[in-house]
Amino acid sequence: MSVRRLRFIAVVLASVVVGGALTSCAPDAGDALTANAALGQVVAQRSGCMSCHGSAGQGGSGPKFVGLSGSTVRLQDGTTRVADDAYLAEATRDPSASRTAGFSGVMPANTLTSTEVAQVVAYINALAGVASVSNERL
Fold first, then answer.
1. Integer CA distances (angstroms), 94 to 17, 19, 109, 122, in order
2. Host domain of residue 50
3. How far apart are CA 9 and CA 111, in angstroms?
């Protein structure tokens, strides 16, 4: 998807967000997504992430997005990591780098750009009520 098209989508989504029609899928769904998080939701849906992580980020055959950001994640090797922006970006970019314990499926590789990864991280953060450290490339 071209940068120009993503900017167009951002403008459209931002206008919807301002209008209050687009809300997050978080437990307190009254909070509107930021434009960056809304783009991340679109990227996650378009890229097939939601087929395993749940249509509303509630989880499924993959870990849930809701409440993930800022939590402690147990990995298959027994170690733990805090799901901060760096971890979320790494897990999105290179799914095999840090496999979550309790999930046997293998997340497929993807071709997301750095901007798209940052947008997905913003979306995951929004589902936990956490602001992204950076809206720029992670």
1. 31, 36, 7, 17
2. 3-126
3. 19
In a domain, 33, yes or no: yes
133: in domain: no
Q: Which residues have C-beta within 8 Å of that of residue 85, sequence separation ≥ 6?
A: 121, 125, 132, 133, 134, 138
As a whole number of angstroms, the distance between CA 87 and CA 69 comes to: 9
Beta carbons within 10 angstroms of residue 101's beta carbon: 13
Decide: 109 and 47 in contact? Cβ < 8 Å.
no
CATH number of the domain at 102, please: 1.10.760.10
pLDDT in tens, 19-40: 333 433 443 444 578 999 999 9
The domain total for the chain is 1
Q: What is the 3-state secondary structure (H, E, C) of 29-56?
A: CCCECCHHHHHHHHHHHHCCCHHHHCCC
pLDDT tens figures, 78-118? 999 999 999 999 999 988 888 899 988 888 888 999 999 99
**CB-side exposure of 118: number of CA atoms within 13 Å?**
13
